[in-house]
Amino acid sequence: MSTIEIKKVTKRFGDFIAVKDADLSVGPGEVVCLLGPSGCGKTTTLRMIAGLERATSGDVIIAGQRMNDLSPQKRDIAMVFQFYALYPALSVGQNIAMPLHYEKLSKDETDKRVMNVARIMHLTDVLDRMPGQISEGEKQRLAVARAIVRDPNCFLFDEPLSRLDVELRHSMRGQIKEVLTGLSKATVIVTHDQLEALTMANRIAIMRDGLIEQVGTPHEVFAKPANVFVASFIGTPQMNLVEADLKSFGNGKAAVRLAGNDIEIAADPAVSRLKPSKVTVGIRPRAFTAASEKSGDTIAAQAELIEPMGAETLIHARTSAGGEIRVVIPREMKVKIGEAMHLRPDPKQTHFFGEDGKAVRA
Ligand code: ATP
User: Fold this and answer.
1) What is the rounded distance in angstroms from the CA atom of residue 218 to the CA atom of residue 237?
2) How far apart are CA 80 and CA 68, in angstroms?
């Protein structure tokens, strides 16, 4: 069965710990993205799965078998790298056939497999061209075609789309996802592009400083971030994370002093555990409504910078406590610089994080 599992995997380079106690399992047909800022350990994790890097401790298990001591060739994995090295002197068709070279297949069988994969990857029209005569998108599809032609146990992709321009990246995301969905293989994709992860992955593993901070579906990591880091990393514009004093909790409402305002906001009962203490309140820029006047659940702020974003407008507003709050409003709603705003956070989309940075939920 096509599965990838890592258990308590750690990688040290001398004294430096690049990946620490990483646990992850990827099922057949599942696409998991490793997402995180530069240097967080994504590629090192992928390379340990591939066998290009040896885990210092922990287990790498592929298709139910411990692989730590096996070479990359013996792991039956196909990798697609950011810099897909195509053979420039071979045609597209010959490039696709290359990985089959060692399988000693008949010419008929090789041709059949190449045609099948070329069809899946929409390359049939360019099979006779040389890599120098095809577009960047076609080169990318060729790299994927070469990976899938061998029918390996699972796939690993390292920043596969980062060389493409924005438009091409957008269409390739969909195309690669469609191909992977039809293949029933466990796939791990490394990316630092959250949009890529949100659109391509069944689940996302978010990493920071060598640690996997949260694993969840794109919806889970967006709607229920496990901690302040995940909350700040996922979502554009970034979630507002405001330090506040939680004063009391009663009748399902938290009373907080937030950005110079005393407000009451409905909150998860688990929040009552924190009182009284410093908390971080997370509110996404699209989770406010603009009220016409001040009330017990609004935050007062003044519009300071206005950024049109097409159908919506991003407003940077200054609170009386001096902090900034980002608010996204529909384009039709007009706000002028200097205008007073009364921002009402949607309680269902308001997150409370304790002093340890962890989300507080029942
Ligand atoms: P990026 O998105 O920039 O590729 P990444 O999340 O993939 O980053 P890794 O390449 O896994 O990060 O690197 C994790 C950390 O390990 C980095 O600080 C890197 O400098 C360090 N590192 C990686 N390979 C080695 C090595 N061979 N020797 C020493 N340190 C290394």
Assistant:
1) 16
2) 21
- Contact yes or no for 331/308 (Cβ under 8 A): yes
Q: How many C-beta atoms lie closer than 10 Å to residue 240's C-beta?
A: 27
**Most informative mutation of 35, 40, 157, 163 for ligand 1 (most atoms within 8 A of CB):** 40
CB 200 within 8 A of CB 169: no
Is residue 18 in contact with ligand 1, taking CB distance under 6 Å? yes
- Our measurement of the distance from residue 148's CA atom to the centroid of its chain's CA atoms, rounded to an integer in Å, reads 23
Would you say 62 and 49 are in contact if contact means Cβ atoms under 8 Å apart?
yes
Does the Cβ of 44 fall within 6 Å of ligand 1? yes
Q: Could you tell me the distance, in angstroms and rounded to a whole number, from the CA of residue 8 to the centre of ligand 1?
A: 18
Residue 152 exposed, middle or buried by CB count within 10 Å (0-12, 13-18, 19+):
middle
CA distance 251 to 245: 18
Nearest to 85 by CA among 120, 131, 135, 138: 131
Question: According to the 3-state scheme, what is the secondary structure of 190-250?
Answer: EECCHHHHHHHCCEEEEEECCEEEEEECHHHHHHCCCEHHHHHHCCCCCCEEEEEEEEEEE
pLDDT tens per residue, range 72-100: 989 999 888 877 788 999 999 999 999 88
Residue of minimum CA distance from atom 12 in ligand 1: 39
Structural contact between residues 237 and 314, judged by C-beta atoms closer than 8 angstroms: yes
CA 101/CA 173 separation, integer angstroms: 29
Output the CA–CA distances (angstroms, integers) from residue 109 to 97, 99, 115, in the order listed. 11, 13, 10
Cis check for the bond before 88: say yes or no (omega within 30 of 0): no
Query: Would the CB of 41 count as within 6 Å of ligand 1?
Result: yes
Inform me whether the pLDDT recorded for 308 exceeds 80. Answer: yes
- pLDDT tens digits for 57-77? 999 999 999 999 999 989 999
